Structures are given as C-alpha cells and as structure tokens.
C-alpha cells in the first residue's frame, strides 16, 4: 500500500449565504433501501498539478474549500447522517444545522504517473488516497472527501459515498457542481457579494413524493434486510467485502471506431441465422459490456457456470409519472442477463453476449419496475450461489466524468475504486474523448490474459491516419508552382496516409498531393455551382502574396488495418469533403493574375476538382505524434491595396507579376518542439507579473494579461536566452484578427485573409535580465494598446515590415502564428480528437505557433531552432515555471 501523510482535516460547513433549515429529514425510498448495507461507492479523480504542496495550499486549496462550501449549501443532505429511529419503520437521512463535511488533505510521495497511467496496478494500492465513512450500527455518515497531493506532479480527489443515499448520477452531479463552482471563483478567494448559482442541470430535486410504490416494494426490501444477520436486524453496518488476494486493476479503452467495428461484426454474423430478426440493442454500452464480458470469461477461464450480468437502469425518465433528471437519491433499477459461460467461449461468443443483453433490455418495454419484487432477493442471494458468476456494471459514459474540471484541466484518470470488492465492471467516457473506458479487477494472470485478448479482438497492426515519414516535411506534398498560376502537383513520399492540409497564405486554398508512381487519386466534383466565377484579392490577401504556404498536420489514433480505414472512415471523409467543398468552392479554383487585371484573382470554373491523396507509411507514428464570400465589405480608404501591389511588383524586377512564393529554406540542424503551459502554469505567470510590477514606476501600466500574451512573452524570453541573442533588437509580430475590429465589422465567417499586424520591439538585453518576463509582457501590451487607435493604424507600413524585416541585420524578427481560439484539437472526423497537431511551416519562417492543447489544459507553443537551443529551451521552460 502507498502510505500517505495526513496534513490536515477540515470540517467544511455549508455557505452561510444560503439559508438552510434548522433541522430536516429525507425518508429513504425503496430505490435507496435496496442498497442499504452495500459497501460505499469509492471513486478517485487524478489531476496533473506540477507544483509544490505549499503552492497548492496557497492557490487551489482555498478555492476547493470555498466552492465545496457553496456546493454543500445546495446539496445539504450530504452533511447529514443516515439513521433508523426507533419510532420509524425505515431509515431516514437526518440533517441538523451545524453539520459539517470531513475534507482530508494528505500528501503522498508515491508514483503519481503510475497511479494515473494506463498500466495494471495492485488493486489495494490506491486505497490510501480515499477517506472512510463513519459507520456504526446506529448511524452512518453519507459522504467523505480526501485530497491527496503528489508534490510536483499532481493531486487526487477521493470520494466515498453511501450507496443507500446516492446513486452514480446524483454523486456525479454533486462532484460536477463542486467543480463548476470552483472554476467560477475569482482568483482571489474572498466573500462573494452574491452567492454563485448552479446551472439548472445541477440543481438537486428533493421531493420524495414523486417516487410511487404501488407494489409495496419498500416493505419487501425492508423485510429482507431485517432478516439478514438476525431477527429484526436494524443495523446500518455495511457489508465488509474483502478485496481478493492478488487483485490487480486495469482500465481498457474502446474507441468509437472499435465500437463501430464490433457493431458491424455482430450484424454481419447475425445475418442468415435463425436469430437474424432479433431486436438487438447495439448501443455503445451493450456492445462494450458484451465484448468485455466475453474477454473476461475467457481470461478468467470460468467454465461450466451460469454468468449473470446485472445491468443498472436509470429509472428517472421511465417511471410513471417521470422523475426529474436532477432527482436526489437512488433511482436505479436492474435487468439481469443470464447465459452459460460455455456459450461465450465459442466463435460466436460476442453475438451470444449481445443477444442476451438485448433480451434483458427488451423487457423494459413491460415496465421498468417489472420484476422489481425480486431485486432484493437476487442481490442478497446471488453472491452466495456456487454455480453462478455475478457481475455488475457500474458507472455510465453518460456521466462524462472526464469533464470534471476544477479549473486546472480535465482529469488525467478517473478510477471507480470500489469495484475491487464487488467484482463489477465500471464504464465511463474516456480521457481523450474517444469512445469508452472499461475498468475491472481480477487476479494478475487473468488481467494479463484479458489485456491480450482485448487487443487481439481487433487487427493487431497499427494503421496511421496522418501518420508519417521520418522527416515530417516529407509528409507534405510539394507544390509545383508555375509562372502565372498554381498548377499540378509534384510528388508524395512513400507510404503515408495524410489528412493534413495546405493553405496558400495568399488565397487560403486547400490542396492535396498526388502519389508518385500510383494511379491518380479520385477527383471530387461539386455540382450545382456557378459555371464560372472569381473573387478579387483584397489588400489583406495581397499582403501575403508570395509568402510560403502554411502547412498543418493533424495526427489521429486509428489502431486498425488499412483495409478497415478504406471500408469505414475513408468513404465518410470523401463524402463530407464533397459537401464541405460545395460551401467552400473557391478552394477548387486557382490563383491567377490576368493580363487585363491590375491584381490577382481567385478563378473558379465548374468542373474544378480537389485532389485528395491516400498514402501509407511504416514510419513511427508515436514519434511523430508525441463561409461567407463578401469581398466588397473590405473597405480600403487608405489605398493599401495599391501600396502592397506596388511593393510586390518591385520585388525581383520591374512590374514583376509572378505568383512564385518565396523559397525559404529550413536552416540546417533544425529541430522542432512542442511545449505546454497548463492553466495553472499560466495563472502562476500572471501572478508573478502582477507581483513584480507592484511598487514600480510601471505599476499603473495597462497590462494585457491574456493567456496569449503571457504565453508568448514567456516563450519569447526563454527563446532569446537559449538562442543567446545579445545586443540586438527583438521584434515580435502579433497577428490580429481584424474581422470585428474594422470600422464596419465583418462576419466571423468571412472567407479570406483578414489579419493585421502589431509590432512589439525591445532590446534583447532587456529580455535577458531578471525582469525579462515583465519587460516582454509590457512591450506586448503596449503594442496591443495601439489597437485603440484603429486596427489599420500603421497598416501602410505592413508590407515594408514584411519585406524588409527579415533582412535587417540587427533585428531578430519572430512571428506568432495560430491561436488557441482555433481549437484545432476539436477537429474530430468521427475517430476521436487528434493526438497531435503540428504547424509545419514555422520551420521556414521562425515563428511560434500557439494553439489549444491536446489534453484541453492550457496552450501548446511550438517553434523550431537548433538542437542545442531547443534542449536549452526545454530545460529553461520547465525550470522557469517551477521557480
């Protein structure tokens, strides 16, 4: 066991800003009584938090306590006790004003990454991160919480709840309410002027009268419990179920594509059989449980038994009358699926499992309480039957436990700990948002066998979507750009599947390559479009006329054979691309500069196709992955178009109308890196800047302490130090989206360039000092302050900066591409979010790329430099945050 040290135990009272009754009680319903003596439900949420314990105590802990206090004012029965008064025929929840909740804060030096990772672990190792309920024969506490800090790595929140008071939906609602309130609290913890309100979907509903009991199930369940362990046994002691020796816990993921494949397999195998017309419930829940059940029976080698799969059914919307979704308490029914284990061992084991689960769920049509008179008998007797293997299914993907964010990002892992005593599966959503996670506990040998069977059920080879070649540039097609137009495509590297995009910076045209030595890719033609049309470039487009194309790659996990990709995802990609192009049809055109036009145009002719190349690669995927078209609304009172055209025409000759883009080379010894700043890191940087600015002559400066500014400032300072850029001017170019900043704001979906620029200039020596971060934030803020004078103020100089800035000897020019607001990691083609997104073209421009992060916590910053500088940057980047 991983022993932790208790630092402090807080008794958290409900917020005084909400008036609570002096004393009240809630009676248990038959739904609650069913679970009266079952062991508490225990769950742990693991969060990354790479800081010292002292920092946790100063920053996050006060918010956790404050928000918990507010949450408890809404969920005040959790502060009470479960009791069974002598004058009551059944137990009740008793709340008295002054009740508090126990919040334990502990510290552990155990391996955080081990417990929050995907590896198998001894089942009891994490028990130390959980609190216990105070339970006696006469009364029981309802909820206890424990926060365990793993210094410099993370923290966990352990929840232990009484099963007779809370079902999974209610306990999850409470945790999410607490997290919601914690996120909403201001940075400085202080008394709020008005109490924070919970969204409607979190507000608990307490009226027990909505639960009707025409079949007197309450009396039946009470009678069964009173007979347990004696005559008229009114004890509230819960069952002391032991965790079997040699128990290991594991968490396994089925992606959406895995689940779709299982569904297709079941349907295909059922065709032409006597059960073809059976009504199958091919939900994600059923297919996932069926597959896990078959793998588990085989791994545990359970032969010649009946296996009983207990399915929990949320009765809230199935009762008559229906019960509100936020009903507080248990409202769970059951359906049992029974089958011989030998039937699950055969070739059609998965089909059998799906059919028997479907048959059980079909009976809900007869009423969700049909058969409820037997639930308590099945619960009490089922565990003791020698020839029966009872397995339950706890949790639900619909709870979305991985969305429980206390302000420091989503959980790295969520464990349902108590399944090690009950033997149940636990189902939840997944940490990466793709599919479901299935957890259970068994002996080590069985768990290892299960892990092998679980994977072997799918093709073992890993197919790569957006997979790659050894050098990431070779993933991208080379453009053959001929004088006067963008022409055909050049070559593809061998064997790579690619869903990345090219965007010509001048016209935002999406382009794909053609495979060398292979048949031409299929063309996608859009119908019902204009026969011929064109879009003129604006000055905002012309500014970028000859800059190299912007290149981006989206990496997605897809652990299947190429043939499955062709049969499942590719048809959808092609169909959806075809539909998308019908809206974005200018992307099918060409950039041309007609002889009779004073500027380039985008020319579209009906019949223009878009080339989509499919390739395959054997490169190391894990290595590479660790519309409105309204040009007339762009006003140009300062004749910027003429200025920019004139500057480009003078480049490379007289009246040079070439559309050839600059051939910027990637410097030798270039390495790319992607670095993350979590929300907590960013908040710490902001606090540092504010604290350092106090009491100085710059105290009253208007700082732009946005996530973007602080992140860029920090990366800028680290980079200047590691690249050892001394005695120069450092110029940071900030791209500004002009859409909502022009005198006549234009729609957010405007098609084309609408980016302006602001320059922040400072001596590199000023960034190298102790206050380098403060200086960087101040100069960036000063540059952004000029937006008040108009976003186009100084725009007459933009083309000069662009053309001259890269060649000035004593100036180090750096740009900032991308934006966290683009939310590139939400780009889901139906197989989950990207594992990684790379802005490839920054290796030619030297810019930073800023985006949202793969795990949803903070931002990612990418750039390219020499290997020595990148290694120094990585070290400084981490040390700077830690200090």
From TrEMBL:
Molecular function per GO: isoflavone-7-O-beta-glucoside 6''-O-malonyltransferase activity
EC number in record: 2.3.1.115
Keywords: Acyltransferase, Transferase
InterPro entries: CAT-like_dom_sf (IPR023213), Plant_metabolite_acyltrans (IPR051504)
Main enzyme class: transferase
Pfam family, one: Transferase
Name the UniProt record assigns to this protein: Putative isoflavone-7-O-beta-glucoside 6''-O-malonyltransferase
Organism: Medicago truncatula (Barrel medic)
Phylogenetic classification of the source organism: Eukaryota, Viridiplantae, Streptophyta, Embryophyta, Tracheophyta
């Amino acid at each position: 066991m991983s022993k932790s040290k208790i630092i402090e135990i807080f008794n958290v009272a409900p917020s005084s800003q909400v008036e609570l009754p002096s004393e009240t009680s809630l009676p248990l319903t038959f739904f609650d009584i069913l679970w009266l003596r079952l062991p508490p439900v225990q769950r742990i949420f693991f969060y990354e938090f790479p800081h010292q314990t002292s920092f946790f105590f100063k920053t996050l802990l006060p918010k956790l306590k404050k928000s918990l206090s507010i949450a408890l004012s809404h969920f005040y029965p959790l502060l009470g006790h479960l009791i069974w008064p002598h004058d009551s025929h059944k137990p009740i929840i008793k709340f008295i004003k002054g009740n508090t909740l126990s919040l334990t804060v502990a510290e552990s030096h155990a391996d955080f990454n081990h417990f929050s990772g995907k590896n198998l672990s001894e089942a009891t190792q994490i028990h130390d991160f959980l609190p216990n309920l105070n339970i006696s024969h006469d009364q029981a506490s309802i909820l206890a919480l424990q926060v365990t800090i793993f210094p410099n790595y993370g923290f966990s929140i352990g929840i232990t709840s009484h099963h007779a008071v809370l079902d999974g939906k209610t306990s999850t609602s409470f945790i999410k309410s607490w997290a919601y309130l914690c996120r909403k609290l201001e940075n400085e913890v202080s008394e709020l002027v008005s109490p924070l309100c919970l969204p409607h979907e979190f507000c608990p509903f307490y009226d027990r009268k909505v639960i009707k009991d025409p079949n007197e199930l309450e009396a039946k369940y009470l009678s069964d419990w009173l007979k347990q362990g004696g005559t008229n046994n009114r004890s509230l002691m819960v069952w002391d179920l032991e965790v079997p020796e040699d128990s290991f816990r594991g968490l396994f993921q089925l992606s959406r594509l895995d689940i779709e494949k299982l569904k297709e397999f079941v349907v295909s195998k059922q065709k032409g059989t006597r059960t073809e017309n059976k009504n199958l419930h091919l939900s994600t829940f059923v297919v996932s449980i069926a597959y896990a059940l078959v793998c588990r029976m085989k791994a545990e080698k359970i032969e010649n038994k009946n296996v009983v799969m207990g399915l929990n059914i949320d009765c809230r919307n199935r009762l008559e009358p229906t019960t509100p979704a936020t009903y507080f308490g248990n409202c769970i029914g059951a359906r049992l699926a029974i089958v011989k284990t030998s039937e699950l061992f055969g070739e059609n084991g998965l089909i059998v499992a799906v059919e028997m689960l479907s048959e059980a769920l079909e009976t809900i049509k007869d009423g969700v309480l049909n058969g409820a008179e037997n639930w308590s008998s099945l619960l009490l007797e089922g565990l003791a039957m020698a020839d029966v293997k009872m397995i339950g299914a706890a949790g639900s993907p619909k709870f979305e436990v991985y969305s429980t964010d206390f302000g420091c990002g989503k959980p790295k892992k969520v464990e349902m700990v108590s399944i090690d005593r009950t033997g149940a599966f636990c189902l939840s959503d997944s940490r990466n948002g793709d599919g479901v996670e299935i957890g259970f506990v068994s002996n080590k040998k069985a768990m290892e066998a299960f892990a092998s069977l679980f994977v072997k059920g799918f093709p073992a080879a890993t197919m790569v979507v957006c997979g790659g070649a050894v050098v990431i540039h070779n993933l991208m097609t080379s453009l053959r750009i001929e004088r006067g137009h963008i022409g055909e495509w050049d070559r593809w590297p061998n064997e790579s599947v690619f869903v990345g995009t090219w965007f010509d910076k001048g016209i935002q045209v999406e382009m794909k390559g053609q495979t060398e030595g292979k048949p031409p890719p299929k063309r996608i033609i859009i119908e019902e479009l204009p026969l011929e049309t064109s879009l003129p470039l604006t000055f905002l487009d012309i500014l970028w006329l000859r800059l190299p194309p912007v290149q981006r790659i989206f990496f997605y996990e897809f652990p299947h054979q190429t043939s499955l990709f062709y049969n499942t995802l590719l048809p959808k990609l092609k169909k959806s691309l075809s539909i998308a192009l019908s809206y974005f049809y200018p992307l099918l055109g060409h950039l041309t500069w007609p002889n009779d036009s004073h500027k380039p145009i985008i020319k579209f002719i009906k019949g223009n196709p878009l080339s989509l190349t499919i390739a395959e690669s054997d490169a190391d995927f894990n290595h590479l992955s660790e519309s409105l078209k309204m040009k007339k609304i762009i006003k140009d009172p300062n004749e910027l178009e003429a200025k920019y055209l004139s500057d480009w025409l003078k480049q490379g000759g007289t009246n040079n109308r070439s559309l050839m883009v600059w051939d910027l080379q990637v410097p030798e010894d270039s390495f790319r890196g992607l670095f993350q700043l979590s929300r907590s890191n960013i908040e710490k940087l902001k606090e540092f800047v504010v604290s350092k600015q106090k009491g100085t002559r710059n105290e009253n400066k208007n700082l732009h302490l946005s996530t973007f500014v602080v992140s860029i400032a920090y990366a800028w300072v680290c980079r200047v130090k590691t690249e050892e850029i001394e005695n120069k001017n450092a110029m940071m170019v900030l791209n500004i989206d002009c859409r909502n900043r022009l005198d006549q704001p234009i729609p957010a979906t405007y098609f084309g360039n609408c980016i302006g620029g602001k320059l922040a200039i400072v001596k590199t020596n000023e960034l190298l000092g102790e206050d380098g971060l403060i200086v960087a934030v101040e100069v960036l803020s000063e540059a952004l302050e000029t937006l008040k004078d108009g976003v186009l103020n100084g725009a007459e100089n933009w083309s000069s900066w662009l053309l001259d800035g890269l060649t000035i000897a004593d100036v180090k020019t750096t740009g900032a591409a991308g934006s966290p607001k683009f939310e590139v990691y939400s780009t889901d083609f139906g197989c989950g979010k990207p594992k990684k997104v790379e802005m490839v073209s920054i290796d030619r421009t030297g810019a930073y790329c800023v985006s949202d992060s793969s795990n949803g916590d903070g931002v990612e910053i990418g750039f390219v430099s020499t290997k020595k500088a990148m290694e120094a940057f990585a070290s400084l980047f981490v040390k700077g945050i830690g200090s």
